[in-house]
Amino acid sequence: EREREGLWDLLRLASFVTCSATFPLLASEHTTGNVGDALVDMLSRLPDAEWIMSTQGSKGSVMLARHSASGTQTVSGGRKVQDVLSDLWARLDGTHRSGSGPGCRTSSGHLIRAGAVVDEIGLFIGGSGEGVACRLAAAAPSSLGRDGIPIADTTGAGDAFNAALLYGIATGLSPTSMMVLGNVTAGSNCTVVGARAGMPPRDRVDNALLMHLELSASR
Fold this sequence. Notes:
Structural class: alpha/beta
Low-confidence stretches: 69-76, 215-219
Largest sheet: 6 strands, mixed
Radius of gyration: 17 Å
């Protein structure tokens, strides 16, 4: 993922955008070095995008989604988006960060468990100083690397995450459910050497991860 001719022409047609941890920082027109600011900047440049998801390596993943104040939840006053994201990461620390939810069985028999999701809705201010009414969510990583589950190869982890998002879009999963499923799928893929050898088939994935439910943790 890098800047190239015609890329933003294509992105402006997208309803859903997924990217690596580094792409928003490289693409931002208001460089602050913060992923929250970069995501607000990206979303403001993509008027047709409903949400942007970004993998964050060992931290899990984050999502910034447009929010309409006409719903049942009201939009709070403006806050710096990076401050909100830092608060979300803090809420995921400790036991909430460790994968302890539903998961999937790897080909080697390990159980990769999902981590928690936390979110906040509000008027979030990015690096440009402009505010956007959004839902910001952070999903903790899976239990990969803990509980005796070794990391064999990270090749293809991003593709595995994106495959889960495509499944979620096709079946109507909520965005936060897609994040959790993506983290688990990517974790499973990292337990085997090769780009796709560790991708879990559907029958090894806990049904709770495939249900049309919001998996956000209560605040």
